[in-house]
Write a structure and sequence with these properties.
The structure holds three protein chains of three kinds.
Chain A lengths: L12 H6 L1 H21 L16 H6 L3 H32 L6 H13 L2 H12 L5 H7 L16 H26 L3 H9 L4 H12 L1 H16 L3 H6 L11 H11 L3 H26 L12
Helix pairs in contact in A: 2-14, 4-8, 4-11, 5-8, 6-8, 8-11, 11-14, 13-14
Chain B lengths: L19 H28 L3 H6 L12 H8 L11 H31 L5 H11 L4 H14 L6 H26 L2 H9 L4 H12 L1 H16 L3 H6 L7 H10 L7 H34 L3
Chain C lengths: L4 E12 L2 E12 L3 E5 L6 H9 L6 E6 L2 E2 L10 E4 L11 H11 L4 H15 L14 H14 L4 E5 L7 H18 L2 E6 L2 H7 L2 E6 L2 E6 L1 H6 L4 H6 L6 E10 L2 E6 L2 E4 L14 E6 L4 E4 L8 E11 L3 E8 L2 E8 L9 E6 L5 E4 L7
Parallel strand pairs in C: 3-8, 3-9, 6-7, 7-8
Antiparallel strand pairs in C: 1-2, 1-4, 4-5, 9-10, 11-12, 11-14, 12-13, 14-20, 15-19, 16-17, 16-19, 17-18
GO cellular component, one term (chain B): plasma membrane
Protein name (chain B): Carbohydrate ABC transporter permease
Subcellular location (chain B): Cell membrane
Chain lengths: ~300, ~300, ~375
């Protein structure tokens, strides 16, 4: 009267049913749609997808289009500046917050609230603050500096920096919160040992704490980098790519060519380049995070 | 030889409140706080001024004459280029998108996360890893095929369409959140429940759910702010008549027709930001937990 | 064929991927027996318990409970109750609801549930706690409730997974006594996992010492303590640990002798498992309390001079560390006398209480 041997595919059936949406999402959306895009990026598709393969023509055209080159250059500038400033400023803020200060919660609330706002809201506020006719430039001129120029939104050479300022306002709080969580995870006894050894606080941070937080930095970096590659709404709201094409970014290029200009092939090729960029960031990190380790099996007690 | 000096330091060591270090710390923090608060301040001040005052005055100065007219206009009659029905249309659209998206995405992800933590099966870890990596694929890569799929299913340009899309793209982070939470619960609870004869759904509903309220709060906050703030999916999948508030706002502010009414624009901007801001201010630590969860690896 | 046994494990193996976690285990537990699975962390003892409970699927072999093959049965259908280290009480339910959850799942009538809870509460004296939540209980009370949850299931086999490890030393010894009393009263089969040898020695009818997924020795506590089957069991059991001297087995006119660094110990009175192999490398093990310390030499062939290294008073007795033939050994003595470092003394060995192991196979000779 032993139980019947459970039929393998039906064992744990409920769990498998519960995972159906995940499996479908992975197979259809993440893998299927991505492969579709990569395949069709090698076709001559214009307003409708066709399987007329043209090799790397779309990519060749992409890299001779000045708008795409500008987009890439902007993404590089934006990426490097936003990444380095948000990491450095975020860490400094977190380190200051970690000094057992009073009103910690108030400061945290203030630093983090922009992160609750959408990129659209962020972009519109900063567009308003930086508008030359009414914003910072006018205020400084009204103070008596008649010749003060701050044409950050109207002079194409600077527009991307305006977007950096807005994105730092929106995103540094997040970095601060992640870093603070990392700092709070550091064993208190490290600090006690450093204090007994008479090591100054700044040196402790620089030579002991920051190296210990390498995983936190790596993870934060990947998260921010992945957001940066996708940057779209902020640009749409703040400058809509202008003046001219001065502040175009790849994500906007993709959207415009796919949905407004009816040039699917270009949009798909551009999005494939975006994917490649993400993979270049992601793969080394993944190899590092998931590198083979001496995993101990949780056996016995 | 052991002369104890009775006049030496004794008792509690005095705390130096005004030390240069602490002045510097608070100084930097306050300067940073001002930078963070200025945009909010400017938004509110601008929205309370009349247009003549804006043209003459300074964006940082408080209104001489407070008016709530811009708020009323923004809500009821601001123009998006074609229609002049105000941002309220977008507000209600966003609500219609938000509520079902939050509910569906959380139900699916919580059950999935539970299955992945306590009921692993062959391949479950592989799919989970793929799901997390999928979260890093730029949406732009998957947009067009998804347009085709939703069109084939007849849900492109509908509320259902955008809800499905939000459920799909909310899945990685939410599943990670729930899985990590359920993994962190003592596995012995699960074992005890199985010895007690409870199965998959009973353990989930009667043992796990009552213990998981905090993580559900975190998930709701994460989804409410995330979906409310979405622009891309709304503009593509929702269809013109269902445009969410962010899209409406952008259309109002960046429409090229007519005279720019900056006070109305700022009022509309505040109104659009109000929902996630309120969620944020009332949920403090849960919000932080939610964004930190994104950084905690599986 | 298994009717005589309460729990029978036949050729049980468990692999995680290519890693063998449990290897071909065979254990028969008699009805009403208290079996302790003892071993260091990672030895597979908790894993084995989880296999018996049905919480882990085994790779090979069979499990019988009360003569019924339960290898593929769900945990609830195996006729077991289980008590966990972390208590595993459902935090949102009161004590009463915790106890009744399994019974409600099984659809028992209300009156029967109430009867069983009352009985368990009586035995464990947790009646006043029934309407509290786990968070409002002390560690000892929680563990009582956890035992109660196994009790109300009215089963023949109790499984304990390190139930006392989370408690402080005093509470641990109290609950240990209580579990022993419970076993005497209920007389059902208990399988108990622990890494604490005192728990094992005090509670068990038989102890299974495990290491590396294998059972090293399965015997009653005294045999395990006095006649360990191999070097691992000998070194794992006993605190302070057994002393070991490396040397070889030789012989002289008086019979077999253990030789190490000029030290000769007669093995004439040693109860060997097999004829002593002369000339073979061996390890001579003896417990600190099985050796006498004195100011004059003892009987020839069993005595050796030694130098005191350290004296550790432990209250009731003292542990004296000495150097014998260049090797450190410990001796347990009455705490009446203190020894000074450098003091010369004489030791008297007691070969019939010693253990001799083959140096290569580490098996008892």
């Amino acid at each position: 009267m032993a139980a019947t041997r459970p039929f393998a595919p039906l064992r744990n059936l409920n769990a498998k049913i519960a995972a159906v949406p995940m499996i479908a999402t992975v197979l259809v959306v993440f893998i299927g749609c991505t492969l579709w895009t990569v395949v069709y990026s090698f076709t001559s598709s214009r307003s409708l997808p066709t399987l007329d393969f043209v090799g790397i023509d779309q990519y060749r055209r992409l890299f001779t289009t000045s708008r795409w080159i500008v987009s890439l250059r902007n993404l590089a500038i934006f990426g490097i500046l936003a990444l380095s400033f948000s990491l450095v400023l975020g860490f400094i803020l977190a380190a200051l917050m970690d000094q057992k200060i009073r009103f910690e919660n108030t400061f945290r609330t203030v630093f983090l609230y922009p992160h609750a706002l959408s990129f659209i809201v962020t972009g519109l506020v900063w567009q308003w603050i930086l508008t030359p006719a009414y914003g910072v430039q006018k205020v400084v001129r009204d103070l008596g500096f008649e010749t003060f120029n701050f044409p950050i939104l109207t002079d194409g050479r600077f527009t991307i920096y305006a977007i950096v300022i807005a994105s730092l306002w929106q995103g540094t709080g997040l970095v601060m919160a992640l870093m603070l969580a990392g700092l709070r995870n550091i064993d208190d006894e490290i600090w006690k040992a450093a204090r007994v050894d008479g090591i100054p606080t700044w040196r402790t941070y620089l030579f002991i704490i920051i190296p210990m937080m390498r995983p936190v930095f790596a993870t934060t970096l990947v998260i921010i980098a992945a957001t940066i590659v996708k940057v779209y709404d902020l640009v749409v709201a703040m400058t809509n790519g202008g003046p001219g094409i001065a502040s175009e970014v790849p994500a906007k290029y993709v959207y415009d060519f796919m949905f407004s200009r009816g040039n699917l092939g270009q949009g798909l090729a551009a999005s494939t380049i975006m994917l490649t960029t993400v993979l270049i960031i992601l793969v080394p990190w993944a190899l590092y995070e998931y590198r083979p380790r001496n995993r101990t099996l949780g056996v016995g007690k | 030889m052991s002369l104890v000096n009775p006049a030496g330091p004794r008792g509690r060591r005095p705390r130096r409140i005004g030390s240069p270090t602490s002045i510097m710390i608070y100084g930097i923090l306050i300067v940073a706080a001002v930078y963070y608060l200025i945009p909010l301040y400017v938004m509110v001040m601008t929205s309370l001024k009349g247009m003549p005052e804006i043209r003459l005055g300074n964006i940082f100065s408080p209104p001489v004459e407070v008016t709530f007219q811009p708020w009323a206009t923004a809500w009821n009659s601001a123009c998006t280029g074609l229609y002049c029905e105000g941002i309220k249309v977008g507000f209600f659209n966003s609500m219609k998108i938000l509520v079902p998206s939050v509910i569906f995405s959380i139900i699916i992800a919580s059950v999935n996360g539970y299955a992945l933590s306590n009921w692993r099966f062959k391949g479950s870890e592989l799919f989970f890893t793929a799901l997390i990596f999928g979260a890093f694929i730029p949406y732009q890569v998957m947009l067009y095929p998804l347009v085709i799929i939703t069109r084939e299913l007849g849900i492109f340009g509908t509320l259902t369409g955008v809800i499905v899309i939000h459920t799909i793209f909310g899945m990685p982070i939410l599943t990670l959140l729930f899985r990590n939470y359920f993994v962190s619960l003592p596995p012995e609870l699960f074992k005890a429940a199985r010895v007690d004869g409870a199965g998959f759904w009973r353990i989930f509903l009667q043992i796990m759910l009552p213990m998981s309220l905090p993580i559900f709060v975190v998930a709701v906050i994460l989804q409410v702010t995330g979906i409310w703030n979405d622009f891309l999916f709304g503009v593509i999948f929702a269809g013109t008549k269902n445009f969410p508030m962010t899209v409406q706002l952008n259309n109002i502010v960046n429409s090229t027709q007519g005279v720019k009414e900056y006070n109305v624009n700022m009022a509309a901007t505040i109104l659009t930001g109000a929902v996630p801001l309120l969620v944020y201010f009332f949920s403090g630590k849960y919000f932080v937990r939610g964004i930190a969860a994104g950084a905690v690896k599986g | 064929m298994t009717q005589l046994h309460s729990v029978s494990i036949k050729d049980l193996s468990l692999n995680f991927g290519s890693v063998g976690v449990l290897k071909d285990l065979n254990i028969d537990v008699a009805d009403g027996e208290f079996l302790v699975l003892l071993g260091p962390s990672g030895c597979g003892k908790s894993t084995l318990l989880n296999c018996i409970a049905g919480l882990l699927d085994i790779s090979e072999g069979q499990i019988f409970i009360k003569g019924k093959n339960v290898t593929w049965e769900e945990p609830k259908d195996r006729g077991i109750g289980m008590v966990f280290q972390s208590y595993a009480l459902y935090p949102q339910m009161t004590v009463e609801k915790n106890l009744s959850f399994g019974l409600r799942v099984a659809g028992l009538p209300k009156a029967e549930i109430a009867k069983r809870i009352a009985a368990a509460a009586e035995i464990l004296q947790i009646g006043p706690l029934l309407h509290r939540k786990p968070a409002e209980l002390s560690g000892g009370q929680r563990q009582r409730v956890a035992i109660g949850r196994a009790l109300v299931r009215d089963v023949d086999v109790f499984l304990f997974d390190e139930p006392l490890s989370n408690l402080d030393a005093k509470l641990r010894s109290e609950l240990r006594v209580e579990i022993k009393r419970l076993h005497q009263k209920l007389a059902n089969t208990m399988i108990y996992v622990t890494h604490d040898q005192i728990e094992a020695l005090t509670l068990a009818d038989r102890i299974a010492v495990m290491k590396g997924g294998l059972i090293q020795q399965l015997d009653d506590p005294l045999t395990i303590y006095n006649r360990p089957r191999n070097l691992f069991v000998a070194s794992f059991i006993g605190s302070p640990a057994m002393n070991f001297l490396k040397g070889e087995i030789g012989g002289n006119s008086a019979g077999p002798v253990f030789k190490a660094n000029g030290l000769d110990i007669s093995l004439a009175s040693y109860a060997a498992q097999q004829p002593l192999p002369f000339g073979r490398a061996a390890i001579f093990g003896f417990r600190p309390e099985h050796i006498a310390i004195g100011d004059a030499p003892g009987p020839t062939g069993r005595s050796s001079p030694a130098t005191v290294d350290l004296d550790e008073p432990m209250g009731a007795d003292s542990l004296v560390w000495l150097k014998v033939a260049g090797k450190p050994i410990s001796v347990r003595v009455d705490s009446g006398r203190r020894y000074q470092p450098g003091e010369k003394v004489f030791l008297t060995f007691n070969p019939n209480l010693a253990s001799v192991f083959d140096a290569e196979s580490e098996i008892r000779i």
